[in-house]
């Protein structure tokens, strides 16, 4: 059991594991709606469009989390506002803001002395999460999960049958804005753990894995959260013992889980097909 206890003797590993648990649970839960609504690209877009906010905060000595939050919220609201107009489709609005904001971030990075200064933003640094960062992550986790529980029925109905939701009086556009805001907060939090490049995977992969195993939404969220948390913990242990990038290790573990779930789904489908009488 020494190999299991050894990493826990270090305070930075304790903080990292707790951060991975919080971020994993939040990403996986809201990621189910991302998968169901076919919004996978928006998670990637929000992760990249937070970059200019991070760079501006870095250059001015401000809190990086605050800068990313501002950029993420502006992008989420901008996507919602542009896609409300019939002239611009949602995927077009995402593409425009995604490329424009990311290009702005790269332009701002080029004004620094070295690209290495912001490497942790691109690839994450979960082992460098501080107590204050952990507190912010915890606050965002509570806000996001409480909102998802409070509006569970509304989000579920607008995800599966938006027309019926409009008929019974639900404002699907307002719920969509709320989901975009929660998603942007979740993405910004995840950036500190796995970075801009890998945040989209933490949103999509655990939720997609759970979708292969069940069709019931609450169970799907629970399975996705467990997969994300397990991926975070296992990835950190791999990073500790093999001396590899922690963010990449976490995402690769989640990817392996998806591959296993896909194989199980294929086997079950073939077995079911054989039991059907000709």
Provide keyphrases for this structure.
single chain; mainly alpha; ABC transporter involved in vitamin B12 uptake, BtuC; 13 helices
How would you characterize the overall build of this protein?
This protein is an all-alpha fold and 278 residues long. The chain has one domain (2-275): ABC transporter involved in vitamin B12 uptake, BtuC. The chain is built from 13 helices and no strands. It has helices at residues 2-5, 11-36, 40-49, 51-60, 64-84, 90-109, 119-123, 131-150, 152-160, 162-167, 172-213, 217-242, 246-275. The radius of gyration is 19 Å and the shape is globular. The mean pLDDT is 81.
A few lines on this structure:
The chain has helices at residues 2-5, 11-36, 40-49, 51-60, 64-84, 90-109, 119-123, 131-150, 152-160, 162-167, 172-213, 217-242, 246-275.
Write the topology of this structure.
Layout (H helix, E strand, L loop, with lengths): L1 H4 L5 H26 L3 H10 L1 H10 L3 H21 L5 H20 L9 H5 L7 H20 L1 H9 L1 H6 L4 H42 L3 H26 L3 H30 L3
Helix pairs in contact: 2-8, 2-11, 2-12, 3-6, 3-11, 4-5, 4-6, 5-6, 5-11, 8-11, 11-12, 11-13, 12-13
Number of helices: 13
| Overall pLDDT metric | 81
Q: Helices and strands, in N-to-C order?
A: HHHHHHHHHHHHH
Low-pLDDT runs? none
Distance between the termini: 53 Å
Q: Which band does the percent of strand residues land in?
A: under 5%
Class derived from helix and strand content: mainly alpha
The amount of helix comes to over 70%
């Amino acid at each position: 059991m020494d190999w299991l206890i050894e990493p826990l003797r270090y305070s930075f590993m304790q903080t990292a594991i707790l951060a991975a648990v919080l971020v994993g649970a939040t990403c996986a839960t809201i990621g189910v709606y991302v998968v169901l609504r076919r919004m996978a690209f928006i998670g990637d877009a929000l992760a990249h469009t937070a970059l200019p906010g991070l760079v501006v905060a870095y250059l001015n000595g401000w809190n990086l989390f605050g800068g990313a939050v501002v950029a993420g919220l502006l992008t989420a609201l901008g996507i919602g506002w542009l896609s409300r107009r019939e002239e611009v489709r949602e995927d077009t609005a995402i593409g425009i803001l995604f490329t424009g904001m990311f290009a702005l971030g790269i332009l701002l990075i080029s004004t620094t002395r070295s690209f290495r200064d912001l490497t942790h933003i691109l690839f994450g640094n979960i082992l460098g999460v501080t107590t204050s960062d952990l507190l912010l992550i915890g606050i965002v986790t509570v806000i996001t999960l409480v909102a998802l529980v409070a509006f569970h029925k509304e989000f579920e109905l607008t995800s599966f049958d938006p027309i019926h939701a409009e008929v019974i009086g639900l404002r699907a556009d307002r719920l969509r804005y709320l989901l975009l805001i929660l998603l942007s907060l979740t993405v910004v939090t995840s950036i500190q753990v796995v970075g801009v490049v890998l945040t989209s995977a933490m949103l999509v992969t655990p939720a997609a894995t759970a979708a292969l195993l069940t069709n019931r939404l609450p169970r799907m969220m629970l399975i996705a959260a467990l997969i994300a948390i397990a991926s975070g913990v296992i990835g950190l242990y791999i990073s500790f013992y093999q001396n590899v990038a922690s963010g990449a290790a976490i995402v690769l573990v989640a990817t392996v889980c998806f591959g296993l779930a896909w194989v199980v789904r294929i086997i079950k489908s073939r077995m079911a097909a054989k039991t059907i009488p000709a």
